[in-house]
Each structure stands twice: as structure tokens, then as C-alpha cells.
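Known limitations

Files may contain more than one protein. Parsers should not assume a single record per file. Below, a two-record file is shown to illustrate correct handling: read the sequence, read the C-alpha cell line, then continue until end of file.
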Amino acid sequence: MISSISIKNFKGFQNFHIKGLAPITLIGGKNNVGKSSFLEALFLLYSAYAPQAFGQQFSLRGAGNLYHNTIENWAVMFYNGDVDKPMEIGAQTDDGHYQLTYTIDKLGHAPDINIPPEIMSQVGPLQNANAPAGVLKSSFAKDGNTLCEIAMYANGMARTSKKVNGEELPKATIILTGNVRNFNAQVLTELDINNRMDMVLDALRIIEPSIKGISVVPVENRKTMIINGVPNVQVTTDAEVYVDIGLARKMPLKLMGDGIGHLVNFIIAIVNSRNGIVLIDEIENGIHYSLRKDLWEKLINIAKQFKCQLIATTHSYGCLQSAVEAIGEEEKEDFYYIRLDEDKNRLIHGVTYTAEELRFALQMNMEVR
């Protein structure tokens, strides 16, 4: 579990530090204050072994087509575009202190790094590794000991990586606004095999009480390609999720409302991130206000079962109220609310509320969003 985080020179964060992250943490604040970037910083930290993680930040926002390996594009990720200062993301966890640092060497070379065979598949082949070019370098450490180094050329010619030891990172999953239609059918299948599908059905009935069951159905996809003038049929197998709501035919989950889609993705993310962390942007989206207390009760219970830290952002006063109402005596020590705000110099700061402090603030009609 993460208990504190520091972010330097990343997007809108110049020099930010806050304590008070709990197993269930809500992040609030005005538009464009950095709530989504806060989640992205954590996801980047837990993706430190992946060479493509830095560029993945563009695709998370639906702007993957804008990303190219150029210093100009890398600069977008640095505070005020200042690539002369390192970007640093650090977190204190139950296991120790993790630190991810990015630097840009405008005219440098990637360091000479031997790549262990077991991670070669992550890194890709080396190509002209000594060619001069701008280099994006990352260094990932735990308690001051380097675990991984990655370097990527601006011209895309080479990527290199070194893993000092085999320490694994907790699984991190991020769900940003609008991504509700891509379901991990494999996780649902595993839940079904292990007789845990009732947990999913119980949560979904908050929104649709008529749901009787869920099925994962294999779907065969055929694609014909012409190779040397000869038609060649390629067959791949995918899966679709169907829901039984008492009609003559089961309904494809993708055709049901956004609320159902959101909730399924939340549950899948938590189950798939056992002993890890799930990051959800605007968690209240698509969920009717009258259902939010029940939603929070289910998510808190599932997160506890899978020992998964849940960190989410919200714009909603009602979402805060529902979360506080759902927090029982046993969970109140496991909940914090962090409100992000900018000062007159546009520096981002955070204020932490315990469950009791947030409950009091809401009772007094204080503006804490």
C-alpha cells in the first residue's frame, strides 16, 4: 500500500508531496488541477520496468497518434516543458521507498547496458545503439538501490534496459474517463471457474436488479489476406460478455448502459490487481446518485477481499457523501480524502481529510470538492 507520494517536474506538478494515502483514497479538486495526472504519475511509477510506459501516457488520454519519440513530445510531460530538470516520482509503501527518475540528454548516448535474456522480449532488438541522438533515460530504485534503467533514443533507433534483480512490482490498473467498453473476459472466466461470479452479480444488481447471470462466449474472427496471390484465412478467437436479464436472448454487455460497464470494469480491475493498486478517474461517472452508497460498499468490500488499494478521483459532492456513508467503523481508519488546489503561483498543494473530518465538513456544508 502507498502511504505517501512525491511528484516533481511532472506535468502540472512542480514540487508536490503529500502523506495520507490509505487503502481507499479519494482525490478531489477543481478542473485541470491535476487529479488525473496524479493517477497517471502513480501508474507510471508502477510501470517502471516497461520501456513503452512513458509514451503510453499519451494513449491513456486517447492521444496516442500524437506521440512520437522526439524531445519536443517528451517535453510535454515535464513541468513547464523544462527538460533540463529531472522528473521524479516517489512513493513510500509497505515494502519500502520507490523512486522513478526521468532525464533527457539532448545530445547524449544511451548507456551501455547488458540485457538479460528473460526481459529481452520487453525491450526489443538493439539497433545502432551508439548513434548520437537525444536520449530519454529512466532510473528506478528501491530504498536507494537501482532496480532498472531504461534509455530511449529520440529517433527511435534503440531501447536498452537493465534489471538488477528480479523483484516484481505490484500490479497497477488505471481506468480513465470514457474507457468502459473494453472488458477483460479472461478475468470473468477465472472468477466463474473459482465460483466467485456471485460477487460480480451481487454488485451489478445494484444497477440492474433483474440480472440473473453472466456468460463469457468465445467469438471466432475470420480475416482473409492475399499472400502471393493466394487467399489465406486467418482465424482468431476473442470473447464477448453476455448478461442474462430475463429476456429471450442474453444481452451483450457492451450494449448495456455505461453504469453497468463502469462497474464491471471496476470489479475486474480490482480482482486482476490482487495485492496491487487500482486507479479510477471520475469514479461517479455513469452511476446514479441514489446507487452510489451501495456501490461504495461493494467496492470497499471487494478491495478488502483482494487486498487492493483503490485510489479514485471525483468531482461530485454526492460521491463524497456516499463514500463517507459507506465507510463503517472498521474501515474509517482505511479511508482518506485528498483535495488538490493551486496557489496564486499555480503550485499544486494537497489537504488530507480523514473519514471523520470529511464527514464533519460535509455536515457543515463546507466546500471540499
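...continuing to the second record:
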Amino acid sequence: MDVLDAVAVLAAGIAAGGINAIVGSGSLITFPTLLALGYPPVVANVSNNLGLVTGNVSGAYGYRKELRGQRGRLVRLGSASLIGAVGGGLLLLTLPAEAFAVIVPGLIMIALVLVVVQPRLQAWMRQRRHGRERHGRDGGPWLWLGVLGTGAYGGYFGAAQGIVLIASLGIGLDDDLQRLNGLKNAMVSVVNGTAALLFITMWLLGETDISWWAVLLIAVGSTVGGLLGATLARRIPPLVLRGVIVAVGLAAIVQLLWG
């Protein structure tokens, strides 16, 4: 990796950390960047996951005020995130690399659709919550299962898992959207952290490859981006931000299918 490549990965990490703290889908910046630099898809995905963990944690720390009073909820739903992440990570490491190259373009396309429709999705969530009674302090068994599925998705690939997760939380819980976003950031940290531990274990066993330079650069960038995300990312017009994410995601699909 030369200097220009390193700068590109670092910049992508900063952008991804900021985007993840606000909305999710930061992997649609870092993952295609690694693909464009020539990393194999599975290596790029594993390295990207490890690098974004610190950014997820810093993003959750930035929402620490909103997380107050949600410990019980986080423990219960976090258990679903953890179990799902283990399942998704094992799928990534056991399925053939050819399967990942086939499945991921479809997952990216779904993620891009979610990025585009997110404003309508949030408006629908608010209307659904308006005037109805609480669904329960922790959302009931259906929310737990939904979080489990999101954790599996995050352990396998993860782009836009934050959007899927906050949509599920908004439907299942009657609470302020900022508090739910803080909960989302903490649970994404659980998913990516769990998957990262699994990937490191498999690397130690010689079962997968990791680019540690990419991990380091994304980790530094995403940590800074996660801390500054609430301040900087909100200055970018939402339409422009979504446009950038969609363009990068489409480039990733082209790279995977015809690169």
C-alpha cells in the first residue's frame, strides 16, 4: 500500500465513521475503497469489519447521554445482536468465497435502497408510533428476533445494518429517535465487535486473511469520524450524502461483478 492508497483508506474510514454515527451504511464507503485497491472481497470485508469497530464504539460514546437508562434494554437486545453476529460471521468464513461474490452485490443493492428510502421509512415509523401504546419496554419477542436477523446480516456483511436496525427499533419501541439511534450505535458495536473477535480467532488459526494495514487506517479514521460525526456529517445536505453513498455502492457492485 503506497501513500496515496493509505490516504484514500484513511479518508474513507473518517467518512464511514461519521456516517455510521448518524445513520449507518459507512461500509458502503470503506468496502468499495478496499475493492478498488485490489483486495479480494472476503479479505476486504473482514479487514473493513475490524477497522470499523473502534468507530462504532466512538459513535456509541458520542451518544452516551441518550443511552442513559437503557442498560436493561441494551443487555436484552444486545444478546440477540451477539448471537446473530456469530452466526453471520461463521457463514462468511465457511461459505466459499465465490458465494460471497455472488451474494454481496444483492446485499449492497438492498442497502442502497434502504439508504434512499430511509427518510420515508423514518416518517412511517413516527406515524406508526404516534398515538399508540408502548409495545413493551423491550419490544417483545418479535423485536428480539428482528435484531437477531440484523446481527446475522451484520456479521456476514454489514453495510446499512444500522438503517435496518433503527427501523426495527423504531417499529418495536415507543421512544425518542435520538435515544434509539444511540441504542443502534451500541448494538452495531456489539455486532461488529463480536464478528471481529471471531475473525481474529480464525486468522490465528490460519483460516482467513486480514490486511492489518487496512484495519489500522480504517480504525484510526473511523474513530475520528465517529467522534466528529454528529457535528460534521449533519452539515452535509442529506440528499448529497445519500447520493455519494449510492454512487459508491454502485461502484462496488460493478467492481464485484465485472472487476
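Parsers that stop after the first record will miss the second one. For reference, the second record is described as follows. Residues 3-258 form one domain.
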